[in-house]
Amino acid sequence: MKKEHWFKIYFLPGFIFQSLVIAGGYATGRELVEFFLSLGPWTGLLAMLVTTLIWSLVIAVSFEFARASRSYDYRSFFKQLLGPAWFLFEAVYFILMLLVLAVIAAASGDMMLHTFGIAPLAGTLLLMVSIGILTFYGSTVIEKFMSGWSFVLYGVYAMFLVWGISLYGGEISLAFETSEISDGWLLGGVKYAGYNLAVIPAILFCIRHIRRRRQALISGGIAGVLAIVPGVLFYCVMVGFYPAIVQDSVPVSTILASYHARWFELLFQVVIFGTFIETGTGLLHAVNERVAQTVTEKGRTLPVYMRPALAVGALVFAIVAGNLLGLVNLIARGYGLLTWAFVLVFVIPVLTLGVLRILRQTPQQTEDEA
Known about the structure:
Number of domains: 1
Oligomer: single chain
Distance between the termini: 15 Å
């Protein structure tokens, strides 16, 4: 097996999953505080383990179901999984997508203003242009960008950890030594896992390289680990600021300010901006793949220019809806309900109906010839 092909099978899907999770999840550190550190250092770490196991399980089953049914876009996937009720996932997915796009667009503008002193519109426009370019060139370029940026992100987060330990190693050790495991770790891990599982169907475009059941299951297992590693690095540094940081609305800003290194703060913010681009691109590319498959079924080909047009159009709509209609606040209040909706239309079906279909496969169906 060629080295490049091996990477695409076992690691690329995990890097792309991590790319979608971090900007919509723990980039600011607030989500890590709410779901994990608020439980206590050791309890939170145990909850992160639960999240990892759930992610790996659901991703592995989803990858194998998609491989076996040759469903590489979410519409095809849910037609196979839910039959006539497939549209239920799309309805919930569109709501989530609009929310996330509106949030990262606003965050991009705020970052440009507070980090670089540039008008917020510049950040939003840069986000639009970047997503437009990536969606224009399609899956191959998107895969390369997301995997490459993931290596940059891992490097910066490793620096973040090493620097944090050098400054606050004593505080981190003390916090762990005086902490005990308490209740709440299971529920915390389950809630955060469900909070992010919705993006799994959006990364199906990258598993076309997977040909065997073993590859799908191993790749899925690795994906859960790859997605949580930057979060664990971030979490360990935050432990050194526990318990005061639990009340901080943007933990990453507090920690970076304490490093007294403007260059690293700028570097970290640039990396986070890259994750905004990754998240927006991944969510919108999933829609493009769904539309392209529908067009293909009708005997036509989706024009290349339609991909960035659809992507940028959806982003603009999300921004307008978020600003003028109060969409962000409306959906944010009901985000818990949105999470449970994904559990009902995706997680439970794939772990029941999906697993049954996988188990009924013949030995020949566990390996693709194509």
